[in-house]
Amino acid sequence: MKLSKVHHIAIIVSDYERSKEFYTRILGLEILRETYRRNRHSYKLDLALNGEYIIELFSFPDYVPRPSYPEALGLRHLAFEVENIEQTVEELKQHISVEAIRIDSLTGKKFVFFTDPDGMPIELYER
User: Fold this and answer.
1) pLDDT digits (tens, 9 = 90+) for 78-101
2) Which among 12, 54, 60, 72 counts the fewest CB atoms within 10 Å?
3) Which residue ranges does the record assign to the VOC domain (predicted)?
């Protein structure tokens, strides 16, 4: 077996409109398709980065809460690469709280964390 790439990441959100705004307006992801699934009373939002499909946002009326702190079992965090971490952090700070920029002791690269509206950790890693 040979995998060719990550196709997408699926995220269940508690407040669809709030998360849609966060991922599109604040993070700048592009909407590829938005579908309301009447039989499930839920939305499915397909999002792209630079034209490439990467995230599905789902809303479900009866979602089950899951721990989201970094050492919880399962997905640890979502990470995006950026060219200039200081500039990106300053832009984000106009909308949300962002941790202090740190240096990766293994690579010497700058990185920072913040959370999505449901508390899921998101990392920015400088190229």
Assistant:
1) 999 999 999 999 999 999 999 999
2) 72
3) 5-127
